[in-house]
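Troubleshooting log. The previous run stalled partway through. Resubmitting the same two chains, unchanged.
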Amino acid sequence: MKEIFTELNSIENVQGSLFFSIDGELMIYEAVGENIPSKEIIEEYSGSLEWEFINNQFKEINEAELIFIKHRVYIRKVDHGFILVLMTLETPIEVVRLNTDLLIPELDSLKKNKGFRRFFRFR
Amino acid sequence: MKNILVVDHDITFMKMIAKKFESGTKQFNPIFVKDGALAVNQLKKTKIDIIISALQMPKMDGYSLLEFLNLNYPDIPLIIITAFGKPKSREILMEKGASAYFVKPVNFDELISKIKDLKEEKSNGGILRSASLEMFAQLVEMEQKTCTIRIKRESDGKEGVLCFKEGEIYFARIGNLKGLEAAYKIFSWQNVTLYIENNCRIKKKKINSELQALLLEAMRLKDEKEVKKSSAKNKDSREPQKLSPVDSLKKYIEDNLPDKTGVLDVYQDSSWSEFIKSSSMLGLVFKKEDLKACYVSKVDSTNFIIVPDKENTVLSVSSKCDREKIYKILMD
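Second attempt completed without errors. Output:
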């Protein structure tokens, strides 16, 4: 299986990257750090969210950063979902942003060519 | 860590250089932008130590970027990288002030070695800790020295640059502040470390004032400021004021971020509550960490930092804002 977030996840202190569809389904889960929660915990979390509301809010938002005590989550809205990058506070955010920019056409082309559901399978 | 601004629209090259920096000794923090116009924006908001730029770019090319640097940031070394190396263009660019010229495919080891050389050049004339800048500047004038002095204020790490050619002061800069005003500020600093470079990249004199006159005016402005400060302090001690949460955050930002870089407004807005609630839940996933702040960039180019509290304090910020500094203030 192709691991689409390999480069993003190789940035120093990045713990992992996720891709959620617009209705909140966890489509890609690629973890590298020890602190990243399991796929099941993330799915439980995503199930508890109001995705209609989130989609509504993100109509006006391009990107967001959530700053926690030791971690940071970078959220990037794309046409068909949300990329989430989980990292520690020391991670160079501009490098993460650049790598996410580079990923978007790749995500788009995968969607056009094969369809997410057939292409991505969970690890 | 030194900030290296990499300006190129060639994504393959950017990826390669990012990898090279990541696998290296982590002395450098690369910042990537796609053209000269974006580089100009980045220079306004971040302290950049060295620039690597392509020549051919869609919006503002390498030649225009070099012109801009010569006018505004002549102390920052520029390395040109091009796919179309021609001896004539190399000659012109080097004459105009570029520090190095590489032709693609670039030998990355040579490039990194050049960056290291440029970094080392910045203090090849020595480092003076706890020095008297006025005294040193007067010595430079007396000895008719040519040099670039990078000054670091120890109390807050703020940095400034003074350039001298044959003993005459040619240029001064603190961040985006240039010329006489920057020179006055730099000469009012105390407890500084001086990094001396035996070179001055500035071709044209941009400060038309004698050093002695400049030093006197700087001292006068410093005294005036101190008098104002102490009278304001006395007034404050007579009339203690209770500040609202928003006002106290404003004051805290003013005190800790003296140039208020990029902070446009501070206010309370409870309409962010639901967004904050969803975001905070993500913290539960991270071993129950508390959410300290959110940064949101909207499609209409407005940007906000939201501090989760009772009413949600919102900082409206420009794209120039140094978010990391603000997060640090908020975390403190």
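Takeaways: Chain B is about 40% helix and 25% strand. The mean pLDDT of chain B is 84.
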